[in-house]
């Protein structure tokens, strides 16, 4: 019996909802850590802490070797009895990669600190070095649970792991004034807790299931992961280049400002992450079943429209109320980075759906990787010219945003070709335009109304602006033909059940 339990037991709507809630919870916990530490640390200390996290997250793109996606891709194709055998093979690969990652962090700490121009990084990276050994073993937990219809358990796992992170990293700083070392060592302890819980959850879907051997080989896994790894490698450059140039040429305090300000809209990440977690196994299953391009296109357009209906209103709202958002999250001192936040929100007008799942499922991962390669080279060249001739945080942000949009447009064109359609047929442009227009009008009206009330404090401005915008947006969107009750039910619909 093929692994279809999550289709039978839970609708894609429920699966996407649980994943979205898990992503939202993870984001909120991360923001809590940043909000607290940015207030209890000096700019140099907080910048150092953020650099440690930045180094880990960017290097993880390389050392994970594109393997996390293999859980969704292969588990959706094999009988459930073979699932544990697949997970064991992936686990062996992760042990080797995580060991090399940890050794690299420990032995290369001083070199990395020198490269980023911050000597405080040396000891803190050594404290943090064991973390990859713990976290990389459980990178596939969320994907495994999703494939087997246990997305609600993902929420529990994220709650526990992020709660560990908040408590262990924040308490030492607030109570014992341990500074950066205390926060970093706290993250290591939290990682150990996540490791224990995650390893237990990896076996949860296979309770009372007879174990079987699998014909899947390491070569099969690597064949899938190589284009994913290539795109991750180029994604590493894209994701880290701007922050590297800021850290190297502007200093640790400016890095703290840039790290807090130049951050994509959280709601978009939540939505895209949830949809991606559902689409990769679904597209993989459709490919194995021999589905035609028309079926892919129906599912694709459904996802695009429904994602835009959530992302666009929040994107416009965050762009208009950016100073207040920065003030509430990080304190008054960080209101000045609102301009960076506004620049990066432009990306979310284009990044409303993940392109990776459909390209990897169709065996066109090389196209995905090449688009990121061109973008990475372009970004490095432009960033170098920027710091050489016109150094500016805003210029760095504009370059990063422009190159990201360029990459997304290339992927959009490539996806249209893969599905044998043009750009006009790939996206529901008319409906998307309606959503965007109504969003801009509603949020602008909300901003004007708040200004007339004379309210100036950040949180009251945010809350009242949000409420007014929603009150205006909902009836206008309905008049414009955007029915949210129908649109978001289901969140991700199948072409076989909703043609």
UniProtKB/TrEMBL annotation:
Membrane topology listed for this record: Multi-pass membrane protein
One Pfam family cited in the UniProt record for this chain: Polysacc_synt
Record's subcellular location: Cell membrane
Keyword terms, alphabetized: Cell membrane, Membrane, Transmembrane, Transmembrane helix
Keyword Cell membrane set for record: yes
Membrane-crossing segments per the record: 16-41, 53-74, 86-107, 127-145, 154-176, 182-203, 224-245, 265-283, 310-331, 337-355, 367-390, 396-414, 435-455, 461-485
rRNA-binding recorded as keyword: no
Name of the protein: Oligosaccharide flippase family protein
Organism annotation: Butyricimonas hominis
């Amino acid at each position: 019996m093929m692994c279809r339990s999550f289709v039978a037991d839970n609708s894609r709507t429920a699966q996407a909802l649980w994943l979205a809630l898990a992503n939202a919870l993870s984001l909120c916990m991360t923001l809590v850590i940043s909000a607290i530490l940015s207030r209890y640390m000096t700019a140099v200390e907080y910048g150092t802490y953020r650099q440690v996290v930045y180094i880990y997250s960017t290097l993880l793109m390389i050392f994970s070797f594109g393997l996390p996606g293999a859980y969704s891709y292969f588990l959706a194709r094999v009988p459930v009895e073979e699932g544990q055998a697949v997970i064991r093979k992936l686990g062996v690969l992760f042990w080797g990669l995580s060991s090399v990652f940890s050794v690299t962090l420990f032995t290369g700490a001083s070199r990395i600190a020198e490269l980023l121009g911050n000597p405080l990084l040396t000891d803190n990276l050594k404290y943090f070095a064991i973390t990859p050994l713990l976290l990389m073993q459980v990178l596939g937990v969320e994907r495994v649970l999703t494939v087997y219809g246990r997305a609600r358990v993902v929420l529990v796992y994220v709650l526990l792991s992020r709660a560990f992170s908040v408590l262990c990293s924040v308490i030492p700083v607030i109570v014992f004034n341990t500074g950066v070392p205390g926060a970093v060592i706290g993250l290591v302890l939290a990682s150990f807790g996540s490791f224990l819980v995650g390893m237990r959850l990896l076996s949860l879907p296979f309770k009372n299931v007879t174990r079987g051997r699998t014909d899947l080989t390491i070569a099969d896994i690597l064949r899938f992961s190589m284009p994913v790894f290539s795109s991750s490698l180029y994604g590493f450059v894209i994701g880290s280049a701007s922050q590297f140039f800021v850290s190297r040429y502007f200093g640790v305090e400016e890095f703290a400002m840039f790290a807090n300000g130049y951050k994509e809209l959280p709601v978009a990440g939540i939505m895209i992450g949830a949809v991606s977690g559902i689409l990769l196994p679904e597209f993989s299953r459709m490919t194995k079943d021999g589905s035609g391009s028309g079926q892919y296109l129906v599912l694709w357009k459904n996802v695009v429209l429904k994602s835009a209906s959530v992302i666009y209103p929040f994107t416009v709202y965050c762009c208009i109320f950016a100073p207040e958002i920065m003030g509430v999250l990080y304190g008054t001192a960080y209101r000045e980075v609102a301009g960076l936040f506004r620049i990066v929100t432009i990306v979310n007008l284009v990044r409303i759906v993940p392109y990776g799942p459909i390209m990897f499922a169709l065996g066109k991962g090389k196209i995905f990787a090449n688009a990121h390669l061109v973008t990475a080279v372009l970004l490095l060249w432009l960033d170098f010219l920027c710091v050489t001739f016109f150094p500016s945080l805003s210029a760095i942000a504009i370059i990063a945003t422009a190159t990201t949009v360029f990459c997304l447009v290339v992927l959009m064109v490539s996806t249209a070709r893969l599905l044998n359609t043009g750009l006009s047929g790939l996206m529901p442009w008319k409906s998307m335009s309606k959503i965007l227009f109504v969003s801009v009008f509603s949020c602008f009206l909300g901003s004007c109304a708040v200004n007339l009330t004379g309210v100036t404090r950040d949180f009251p401005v945010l809350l009242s602006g949000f409420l007014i915008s929603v009150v205006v947006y909902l009836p206008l969107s309905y008049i414009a033909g955007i029915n949210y009750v129908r649109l978001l039910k289901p969140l991700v619909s199948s072409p076989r059940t909703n043609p």
